[in-house]
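ARCHIVE CARD
Drawer: 12
Card no.: 0347
Subject: one protein chain, sequence and derived structure
Cross-reference: see card 0346
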Amino acid sequence: MLPTVTRHRLSPLLGVAAAVLAFVSSAAGAERLNLGNKRQLFVDSHLLAEKKNVELVLHQPVPREIVLTVDKPWEDNVMTYVSVMKDGNRFLMYYRGTGADEKYAKDAPAGMSTGNWTYTAVAESTDGIKWTKPVLNLVEFKGSKANNLIWPTDANKPWRDKNYPGTDIFPFRDENPNVAPDQRFKALANIGEYELAALVSPDGFRWKPLREKPVISFPSPNPMMDPPSVTFWDPNTRQYVGYLRHWINYRIRGFRRVTSPDYVNWSEPQVVNYLNGEVEQLYTSMAIAYDRAPDTYLFFSKRFARWKKKQPSTGVSEIVFLSSRDGLNFDRTFMEPFLPPGLDKNNWHPRGVMMGRGILETSPTELSLYYIENYGLPSVRVRRATLRPDGFVSVHAPWAGGEFTTPPFVYDGSELELNFATSAAGSIRVEIQDENGQAIPGFRIEDCDEIFGDELDRTVTWARSHDMMLNEKNEEIPYPPGNFGRPLAGKTIRLRFVMKAAELYSFRIK
């Protein structure tokens, strides 16, 4: 008779490892991560303590359909600065509307616009693909309020007295658990060239200043405050975080970070550090805390190659990917583009493509990102692009195979869940080690059930030929009933991944 084979998830580790790890001394000076139950992305080398024949690979989003075009009098060829979010059962998309209202329009740059007074407009969607422009009756344009403009209203135009036409705002839905209902949406807006006002809204449509005075004025060491000024509620630090434009050595564009407990009182700006990457001309941050792993911060920045020339104007641009684990120090592992201009020749000019802010989950297997293409031309439009969930970067193993081991981390959970893809003949196996790198009995590579396919949340299992565990005397005894998680709580382990023709996007212990 064949022996009974029990398929274990991570929970049996709790019984075996409790005895094994109890007598293992800590490695001297070993760094221990505290991962908790948060999803872990491989956006940098943070989780690769040791590796052999594997590499981190940046994945470009797949361009999809055009979702928004210029078809209203208050829109023209400088439509840009997209910001998307989920609000209940609907999606919202904010973008720049620009038009020549005779009351405020000025002479525009040649070939760029019929007038340079800018507004903020909004579109709605239930699926992230088909978008409509609601008639909101909030902002007057050429004598009529029958439009989808939300800002600035006639009651809120303080910067017009200061002769400043820019009114681009980047709203976000405030997830602060203590937020007042009439301030559920927030944004910063330019007042003059060097000051920002705080705006609030109960529904994302009707906006007003949080207070009359600016909340940020003439920041040092240079006061440059061009849009976009991107802000959000940070659940990790439980404060508001903002990313503002900045001059590096007064000649290279970059970013600085500000924080606030209340969206009124903001800290002194801190210049963002690019860590191991080159300092480049980066125009827009489009910063987010990634919803599926909120302690991972992402930038989708527009890189400007200033001296290259494809069109009559000088300079070309593309989108690059940066990541951070603290919101201030951003990794530049990937210098190649996240979103290049592509085959469309109308994207090969200074502002050809610009990524929007925000990511929408448009299906359980799809994330949607939105970007402007053909900026400054009559064909300007918003296009959707897609990635698999967590699909920004993967650990890639070739056909010949490879492996890596995580740093030691404090265990908290009972199951190991993987987001991965393999070839039909590829595979992934996982070994659980103690903090010194010794495999735990029953959870060696040879015990792991082969993992293959393409899944977002596969639970790893280990096969054992009997239903026994080891006690502190190294004796086999039956597994105890109940929750195996408690004996391992607070212990330190490592994970070893052995891979062949495979991509690993993320893991989570839950």
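Annotation on reverse: The chain is about 5% helix and 40% strand. The first helix runs from residue 12 to 21.
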